[in-house]
Specification:
171 residues; mainly alpha
């Protein structure tokens, strides 16, 4: 994680990642780069949940789904992200994020038309969900097991949530 930390720090300090209102497309692209890095570090280097070859053989959203499961988060899009959920009613959160990102990064005519159909709110909510995954993956990689500010389901700073991997099954 130490070698990767410098790359993640650069992404977090990037204006395009920290200001999605002005740079929503770029912020989502940068967030996916961070998810890609964290997925590899968590699943291949830290937990040995898969080999490098297995990782490379998977599609991006499948890697992110594995990361989300590793963080003990649900794969579904949270109901509070209503625009994203409405746009992707059957997709997992990682699949929705990757689909939107691909429509931005791969400018075929079909993808440009898809991108036009996604409102700024859909892209913003995809970015919010990406950041949620990034924050929790980083906390888990650091060995943290306390309360955190849940930007998705509990935006109030007064009532922090406990990281999912610290919650006992009966709680």
């Amino acid at each position: 994680m130490r070698a990767s930390g410098f790359q993640l720090e650069d992404l977090f300090q990037s204006k395009s990642l920290s200001n999605p209102v002005l740079y929503h497309d770029v912020a989502l692209i940068n967030a996916q780069m961070a998810l890609e890095l964290l997925s590899y570090v968590a699943l291949v280097e830290e937990s040995s949940a898969m080999t490098a070859e297995e990782f490379d053989a998977r599609r991006a959203y499948e890697r992110f789904e594995k990361l989300v499961i590793w963080c003990r988060l649900p794969l579904s899009i949270p109901p509070s992200l209503s625009d994203l959920k409405l746009c992707f009613p059957r997709a997992s959160g990682p699949e929705a994020i990757t689909t939107i990102r691909n429509s931005i990064m791969h400018p075929t005519k079909a993808n440009r038309e898809k991108r036009q159909a996604y409102s700024i709110y859909v892209v913003y909510e995809a970015w919010q969900l990406s950041m949620h995954y990034i924050e929790l993956a980083m906390l888990k990689l650091m060995g943290y097991s306390g309360p955190y500010h849940n930007r998705i389901t509990n935006p109030s700073a007064f009532y922090p949530d406990l990281v999912p991997w610290a919650i006992k099954p009966n709680e």
